[in-house]
Specification:
Layout: H1 2-24
Organism: Sus scrofa (Pig)
Protein name: Laminin beta 2 chain
Length: 26
């Protein structure tokens, strides 16, 4: 479970970074 949680957290972080990059571009 710990491994899955870490992978899920990394995936969420990647999505957040992607969305922030998309939002930063007007």
């Amino acid at each position: 479970v710990e491994q899955a949680n870490r992978e899920l957290r990394e995936l969420i972080q990647s999505v957040k970074d992607f969305l922030s990059q998309e939002g930063a571009d007007p």
